[in-house]
Amino acid sequence: MFFTRYYLLFASLFVGVNCLKILFIVPQFGPSHVKMMGAAADILAKKHDVTYFIPPVDISLNKTGTLLSHVITTEKSDVFIPLQGDKMAFQRNIWVEDMLSNKFFTRMINMVKKNAVANCDRLIKNETLTAYMKVQKFDIAIGETFLYCSFVLMKMYGIKQHVAISANPLMISKYFGITNSPAQVPEITTVATDLEMGFFNRLRNVWSFYMGNVFVDEVIDGEQEVIDRKFGKGVYDIRQEIRDSAFVVTNNDPLVNFQYSTLPKVLHLGGMTITPTQPLSLELEGAMSKKEKVILISFGSVAQGMHIPLPIKIILLEVIKSMPDVMFLFKYEDDEDTLVKGIDNLYTSKWLPQSDLLNHKRLSGFYTHGGISSLLEAARFGKPIVVTPLFSDQFKNSKIASKLGFGYTLYKSDLTDAAKVKAAFNLLLDENNDLAVSAHRLSSMIQNRPGNLTDIFIKHVEFAAKYGKLPFLNMEGHNMSIFTYALLDIISFVLACGLLIVGLIVYLIRKLYCSLLGEIYDSHDKKKK
Question: Helical H runs in 371-452?
């Protein structure tokens, strides 16, 4: 007893010495982003003291995403109430508008920017919050490169070290000096693989590259403006704070993506935040057992199934009815909609445990919008997918699944054709076709690759807390203009030199020719005389 008491005391002291105080700053905006950050916080909370600061932005969200961290928040602000209308309109329009149009993309940028600016403005003015954070003496902070003001808040709170997490590393890679040519790497809204970069796809990719940069720059510029108004120009620089991140942890799995330029400071740990699966509830298990084959239908938390246009919804339900030997589990957010009731092979629910279902042996395939989390989970559990991309990176993700052989793309324009929808569903049911074989192989590769993603994450955060900023891991030239990056100055110089040399040669040849011609004429005249 004596030994045990003092052993435990010694052990607690040892843990206390090695335990870091970590602050996560997670604006509550975008359910999938909150879920990813919460899962990352829980990984660290098993070993360290993690505080999870989640200021409300989307005031309709209630989940924090974390189970193990110490959660702190602020009161919900009335400033976000008018912005809810923009979000609801966005969700409805996803199904009916061209999400690749400049008009839609501009509206999406404005929606995110308004929320980012309002969030930043109220947090930097909260002196009580800032004072509280300063006295906590955090060792390191972690934030996502989505609402970027978080990186200035870290500096305001006196936290010298920080790590960035990014759901889409291509959009912020320029701040670390990474460049990817639009001729090679498909951007998030380009409907093509890296094997399909012909003239028109490259032309489209240049536009996508430009709009991706506009998206990031517009949000950062809006936040930077309110920061400069509060503190003056030059006191805090969002872009420099992002660049000063010791490491950047991405939700990208190299096995489930196109390849692109990167740096040692960028850690590709996609799939790290997929939580361990749990047994299904008795109700769900009962629904799964009704048929030999089961298909999961879910369009994520933004593009809700209940907002599918009525004509398409009717076609989808008719196809489901025409396949009585298959059970369909449909994430459908309206429990009162009589249209989806009374169908024997259809189970609907406002929420479904997606990972748990994808890991179930009876599930045959997954019909999805193609969000990055859905893509990674399907790959991890070896399920073939049919993708109807709706917005953002879902177009790119659908092409990734197609290239890897475990996905088939069914565009919105195809959903009015019942035969195409049914054919797509049938692709998910064949256990021996190319989709299923590719899905199983990819799952085996993911689960058997060397290294442990969570250990890599933990060790790099601990390394960053110990050694701080690592500027030598950045590439220089992050402020380089397109004129310099494309070597247009060098090309112009070489061309100018070439033209000068050619001009000189032409001039000399002409002079020589005229001189020789003159001599010939002189000689001819002399002979005449």
Answer: 372-381, 394-404, 418-429, 434-448
Residue 11 lies in a domain: no
Q: pTM score, two decimals? A: 0.88
Token digits of residue 426: 């049938």
DSSP assignments along 90-101, one per residue: HHHHTTTS-TTS
380, 432: one domain: yes
pLDDT of residue 435: 96
Residue ranges making up the domain that contains 286: 282-448
317 and 261: one domain? no
Q: What is the CATH number of the domain that holds 376?
A: 3.40.50.2000
* Residues in the chain with pLDDT values less than 70: 1-17, 519, 521-529
Residue 4 maps to a domain: no
| Spatial CA neighbour of 147 closest among 111, 117, 177 | 117
Single out the residue of 409, 65, 442, 463 nearest to residue 253, CA to CA: 442
Strand residues in 305-392 grouped as ranges (E)? 326-331, 346-349, 363-368, 385-387
Report in angstroms the alpha-carbon separations of 358 from 190, 298, 372, 393.
Answer: 28, 11, 15, 21
At which residue do the structure tokens 């959660």 appear? Answer: 71
Beginning with the edge strand found earlier in the chain, give each strand of the sheet holding 248-250 in spatial order: 70-72, 49-53, 21-25, 140-144, 162-166, 248-250, 266-268
Query: pLDDT tens digits, residue range 477-502?
Result: 777 777 777 788 899 999 999 999 99
Strands of the 385-387 sheet, one edge to the other: 346-349, 326-331, 293-298, 363-368, 385-387, 407-409
Residues 401 and 468 reside in one and the same domain: no
Looking at the DSSP bridge assignments, the partners of residue 250 are 166, 268
pLDDT for 7 equals 35
409 and 469 part of one domain? no
| 165 and 232 share one domain | yes
> Which pLDDT value is given to residue 524?
62
The pLDDT, as a whole number, for residue 172 is 79
Q: Do residues 391 and 99 touch, judged by C-beta distance below 8 A?
A: yes
On whether both 160 and 302 belong to a single domain, the answer is no
Residues 226, 88: Cα–Cα separation, whole Å: 26
Asked whether the beta carbons of 387 and 365 are under 8 A apart, the reply is no
β-partners of residue 163 are: 142
Structure tokens that stand for 73 in this block: 């928040």
Residue 327 to residue 329: CA distance in whole angstroms: 7
Residue 409 tokens read as: 């793309």
Axis crossing angle, helix 372-381 with helix 434-448, rounded to the nearest 10: 90
Number of domains composing the chain: 3
pLDDT for the residue numbered 525:
62
Domain check: are 240 and 310 in the same one? no
Give per-residue pLDDT as tens, 265-320: 999 999 999 989 999 999 999 999 999 999 999 998 888 899 999 999 999 999 99
Q: Give yes or no for a contact between 218 and 109, defined as CB atoms under 8 angstroms apart.
A: yes
> What was the pLDDT predicted at 447?
94
